[in-house]
């Protein structure tokens, strides 16, 4: 078990839950150029548009 006050653990969990939402992962990928960290993000309109505009990006995602 991780040490720390419960309030801090709850806050960390909320941040991870926010950061892992498909729409947030997709926006982060579009903004940074990093590959999406979840499969659900690949189905979002933002990444589908990016895949259309930059086919090479799709290849990298598929190989991952």
Residues in β-strands, percent: under 5%
Sheet with most strands: none
Q: Would you tell me the overall average pLDDT?
A: 93
By helix and strand content, what is the structural category? mainly alpha
- The oligomerization state is single chain
Number of strands: 0
Shape: elongated
Q: How many alpha or pi helices?
A: 4
Number of domain modules = 1
Approximately how much helix is present in the residues? 55-70%
Distance between the termini: 31 Å
Instruction: Using the CA coordinates, give the radius of gyration.
Output: 15 Å
Low confidence ranges = none
Give the ordered list of helices and strands.
Answer: HHHH
Write the layout of secondary structure elements.
Layout: H1 6-19, H2 22-32, H3 45-53, H4 55-63
Helix pairs in contact: 3-4
Give an overview of the whole structure.
With 64 residues, this protein is an all-alpha fold. The chain has one domain. Helices cover 67% and strands 0% of the residues. It has helices spanning 6-19, 22-32, 45-53, 55-63. Helix 3 packs across helix 4 (55-63).
Q: Which characteristics define this entry?
A:
single chain, 64 residues, mainly alpha, 4 helices
In short:
With 64 residues, the protein is mostly helical. It is 67% helix and 0% strand.
